[in-house]
Structure to design on (443 residues):
């Protein structure tokens, strides 16, 4: 019996670790997640491959990649057929994870601080934070747009770095590609695939 | 005589700005040409600006911070008339107070004691002032060396040289409070500010370059968002996403 209960506890601990469960309070959620990421990414005993895998896992668990994909597609999400949208979503997820891993490993941070949070609606909370780069450059202000439709499972939908929305930048970049390719979703998918293959 | 020249120019500029308000900033004035100029600017950055910024970054921190404080303090001079034109008297007080304290206690602006006193003035220019009057950005294009801009901001860049006290004593070689200078002073300061900005953003530029599928569009988005925020003195886009709409 003792062995079984120990085994169950172990499974729960491992499962919890693997699922990266953070607090359901948006402010705590951001604080725990970022501190966890800073510790992991600055750990010199972990290989770059392991770091990349870690970033992918926390992103899949805590970022609303599906919604982000639809948002960045703009109006085309309404006129495209389901099959194309599914194909786009799959490619977008791979693209997003690759670019996120690259962005996160480009930077090294030493201090992260959550300053305040404001509930915008029942679905959204904006969490304000500051991060201090290790290279002595000025601290960076980051606002997190947290989707709280399921209050037990907050999800990150956007990062607003020094007032610049990463989701909006992505959306406008995609819009430009689409407009120079007759709004053909497959051209955008090809561009994303090109990026993945580089 | 002076008024005879200024009134028609101002009137024509206002008529022109009124007509561009209906043009969306995401619209391009001449995309093909802008993309070519953008390529040229990227090459200029690779060969000249980035190496200088990297070298500048290796300077000891007190020198870098002092240079950054000095250029920032001089640029506060442009904010003063613009805050006045916007009727933003609180910011006018901040700009004026910051400039006065940093230029004296802060040893000609090399130190920033005003910030420690809570004075952190927002940077304002004529483009922002026109935006605060409700004038739209007009279409978007890229200028050689100067980079991304819109019609409103280009007019703003020229108008800046008329309202900026520093431009008056340098470019126009007018004497103000017994201080005068020349063109070289003006362009050296602008160049130094550009190097300082570039050195603060080495990693940001590199990351954006590496992770963009269309760098031209990413830079355009970043520029337009930044200008929107500056005009609204806001912290950025916090619109609600409703994916069901």
């Amino acid at each position: 019996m003792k062995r079984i209960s120990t085994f169950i506890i172990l499974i729960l601990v491992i499962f919890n670790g693997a699922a990266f469960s953070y607090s359901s309070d948006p402010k705590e959620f951001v604080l725990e997640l970022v501190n966890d990421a800073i510790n992991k990414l600055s750990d010199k005993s972990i290989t770059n491959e392991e770091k990349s895998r870690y970033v992918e896992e926390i992103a899949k668990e805590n970022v609303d990649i599906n919604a982000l994909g639809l948002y960045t597609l703009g109006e085309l999400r309404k006129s495209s057929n389901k099959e194309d949208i599914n194909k786009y979503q799959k490619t977008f997820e791979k693209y997003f994870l690759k670019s996120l891993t690259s962005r996160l490993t480009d930077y090294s941070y030493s201090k992260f601080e959550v300053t305040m949070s404001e509930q915008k609606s029942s679905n959204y909370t904006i969490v304000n934070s500051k991060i201090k780069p290790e290279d002595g450059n000025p601290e960076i202000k980051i606002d997190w747009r947290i989707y709280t439709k399921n209050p037990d499972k907050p999800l990150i939908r956007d990062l607003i770095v020094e007032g610049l929305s990463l989701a909006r930048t992505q959306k406008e970049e995609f819009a430009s590609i689409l407009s120079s390719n007759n709004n053909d979703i497959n051209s955008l998918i090809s561009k994303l695939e090109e990026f993945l293959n580089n | 005589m002076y008024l005879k020249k200024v009134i028609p120019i101002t009137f024509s500029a206002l008529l022109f700005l009124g007509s561009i308000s209906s043009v969306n900033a995401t619209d391009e004035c001449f995309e093909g040409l802008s993309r070519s100029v953008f390529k040229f600017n990227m090459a200029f950055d690779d060969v000249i600006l980035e190496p200088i910024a990297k070298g500048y970054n290796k300077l000891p921190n007190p020198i870098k911070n002092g240079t950054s404080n000095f250029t920032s303090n001089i640029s506060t001079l442009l904010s003063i008339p613009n805050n006045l034109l916007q009727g933003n008297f609180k910011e006018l007080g901040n700009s004026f107070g910051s400039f006065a304290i940093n230029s004296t206690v802060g040893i000609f602006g090399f130190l920033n004691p005003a910030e420690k006193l809570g004075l952190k003035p927002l940077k304002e220019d004529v483009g922002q002032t026109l935006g605060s009057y409700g004038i739209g950005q007009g279409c978007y294009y890229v200028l050689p060396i100067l980079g991304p801009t819109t019609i409103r901001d280009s007019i703003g860049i020229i108008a800046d040289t008329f309202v900026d006290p520093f431009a008056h004593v340098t470019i126009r070689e007018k004497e103000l409070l017994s201080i005068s200078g020349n063109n070289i002073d003006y362009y050296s300061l602008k160049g130094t500010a550009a190097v300082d900005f570039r050195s603060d953003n080495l990693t940001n530029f590199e990351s954006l370059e590496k992770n963009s599928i269309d760098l031209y569009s990413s830079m355009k988005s970043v520029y337009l968002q930044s200008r929107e925020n500056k005009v609204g003195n806001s912290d950025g886009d916090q619109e609600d996403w409703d994916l069901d709409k």
User: Anything to note?
Assistant: The mean pLDDT of chain B is 88. The longest strand of chain B covers residues 140-143.
